Amino acid sequence: MDTTFPCPACNGESWLPVGTHYYWRAEHQANGNWYRDQYVRLRRRVLFEIWFPDADVVILSSRRCATCGLACYCPRPDSFDLEAKYRFLMEAKGVGTRDAAVEQDAARAAWVYETICAVQTNPFRVLDVGGGNGRLMLPFLARGAECYLVDYATWTHQGVQRLGSTLADVPQAMSFDVAICSHVLEHVAYPRRLLEEVHRILCDDGIVYVEVPLEEFRNNAWNPILAEPVTHISFFTAVTLRHLLLAVGYQTNLLEECVGTYEGQPLPVIRAVATKSNWLADPVNI
Ligand SMILES: [Zn+2]
């Protein structure tokens, strides 16, 4: 766990306090409030069996970046904590996702495809970063694109080639016209570093599609970590995403808040399409 860290989106050092959040071990055990909710119970088991194995109560302080508006909590899981989380979830239930629902994502796949093609009319080589089983790639595949993904999940749709678990597994010589980071940045320890790695493996003028949930993190009573703080660890605004993309060297073609879908359910999201450039924004002027 990190207790001292800069903003994982903009590297800013100035934080505003938001709230203090208490989680008791007894709450997900028999007769506890969260015992009957299997999804929450499994995440709370990560909190108490993997991240804080000696604690009966976990206390997290949430904060907001004064520069870009990203909200997160402290102590913050690092990449080792998150790897341990995914190993635990995969062992507990296979691939760590709500499997029955994920195949309902055809409408989302079509929506992502159309949004990307409005900017990059003929994507040939496409990489989905954290793409699960590759379901978002199916419209690209149907139109003859080469489709690749990196994810901890090991089963992929036929025709989608899995290159490994993370971007570190992508062969050095490979580059891509399009990279998709859909519902990924809110899960990772270092979202800025992830977008920097994506920048490196894109062709010149390649584009990245980024989508994150729009979750309001206001205070102790109104926030997305009431039930459990394990699923998402960073909470973005449109301003955060704009900062992040510009600072890493992308120019944004599209940035919008809208209602998308996820696993068949409506979900407010922030999404962006941005083109790789070699121009780095001055953070002061973003
Ligand atoms: Zn920030």
UniProtKB/TrEMBL annotation:
<dbReference type="InterPro" id="IPR029063">
    <property type="entry name" value="SAM-dependent_MTases_sf"/>
</dbReference>
<protein>
    <recommendedName>
        <fullName>Methyltransferase domain-containing protein</fullName>
    </recommendedName>
</protein>
<dbReference type="Pfam" id="PF13489">
    <property type="entry name" value="Methyltransf_23"/>
</dbReference>
